[in-house]
């Protein structure tokens, strides 16, 4: 049976399309993907992303453990702020892309993908048990996914909405900085973050969940529903739209962001000492802090010496056509790779996509062809984002 978020009943009443995604029944759109997409690019939208996973680490050994199981330096940010980091398997492939918040007092809060949190929790608890066979650990690991509602408010008007709701200027916060806020007596964690390329914030609210797998924890999500409806009410003057996973995907694609399960994954290629997909192949080396030991580091160092074989690249269509996952990519008549994500950009009106291709073709300005329903359509590789960053996105100038 598919999992359900706290506000599933609200979405069932208001969304035009609900489908299963990563094991969760989620709203895909309320009005249309294009309308919701453009609301986020030009004004503001709100997403219920409570299907995202949350894992809490507590204890004096929590930081040491996280430094070993993730790639980035999670010791650097002060409380309360987060670090984008990766979890790898022993052979260098990406188990998930995560965000780890230092909450202070030896507590850390990890946000992970909807279809990865269960395997990550199992992985971490397995590692903890293994280490404890040899040494004592002051570490508690708790899965909180079903207890926390998460909403993402995104778009150029998100700053104004945060000011109205919480009396704070999110532009005075650095990216991934967080703080505790209250709205009508409801306490929540707010971080300046998002997955759309736009300015915005995300809130985390611990509340009862009518669909919690533990029947003893089931109840009405009064706090989460109140905050969701207040966001929509206060956002009316800015043209806010509730947005589903359809727009979330087209927005992240326009921004050039990877999606776990498409661009990042572990293929479990057991016949080799280097698995795929690695951070080096996925252009995520910025999330690696090389001056520490972490699971998967040795495999990445070997890959640096041997070469990547294939690498991620972004492309836009020159000919008319919409690229989709699994479509083959060619250059000079040679098969060089495969599309991992693709769509028709609601903002630009052209096909855009991400692909893994042979390493020598993974640079901007290369003419390629995408096989779309048996016809090879011209495209060109580009540097993301696909939109003009002076006109749209977090760093827009207008």
What report would you give on this structure?
Helices cover 21% and strands 32% of the residues. By secondary structure, it is an alpha+beta fold. The chain has 8 helices and 20 strands. Strands 11-12-13-10-4-14 form a 6-stranded mixed sheet. A 6-stranded antiparallel beta barrel has the order 15-18-17-16-19-20. It has helices at residues 8-14, 33-42, 62-69, 117-131, 158-166, 222-234, 245-255, 297-306; strands at residues 3-4, 17-21, 24-29, 45-48, 53-58, 81-88, 94-104, 107-112, 140-143, 148-154, 178-183, 186-191, 200-206, 241-243, 310-317, 328-331, 334-344, 351-358, 367-372, 375-382. The termini are far apart. The model has no long low-confidence stretch (mean pLDDT 97). It has 3 domains: 7-50 and 146-255, Probable tRNA modification gtpase trme, domain 1 (Gyrase A, domain 2, 2-Layer Sandwich); 53-143 and 267-307, 2-Layer Sandwich (Alpha-Beta Plaits); 309-381, Elongation Factor Tu (Ef-tu), domain 3, CATH 2.40.30. Strand 17 (334-344) and strand 18 (351-358) form a beta hairpin. One of its GO terms (molecular function) is aminomethyltransferase activity. It is an enzyme of class 2 (transferase).
Outline the fold blueprint.
Layout: E1 3-4, H1 8-14, E2 17-21, E3 24-29, H2 33-42, E4 45-48, E5 53-58, H3 62-69, E6 81-88, E7 94-104, E8 107-112, H4 117-131, E9 140-143, E10 148-154, H5 158-166, E11 178-183, E12 186-191, E13 200-206, H6 222-234, E14 241-243, H7 245-255, H8 297-306, E15 310-317, E16 328-331, E17 334-344, E18 351-358, E19 367-372, E20 375-382
Helix pairs in contact: 2-7
Catalytic activity: N(6)-[(R)-S(8)-aminomethyldihydrolipoyl]-L-lysyl-[protein] + (6S)-5,6,7,8-tetrahydrofolate = N(6)-[(R)-dihydrolipoyl]-L-lysyl-[protein] + (6R)-5,10-methylene-5,6,7,8-tetrahydrofolate + NH4(+)
GO biological process, one term: methylation
GO molecular function, one term: transaminase activity
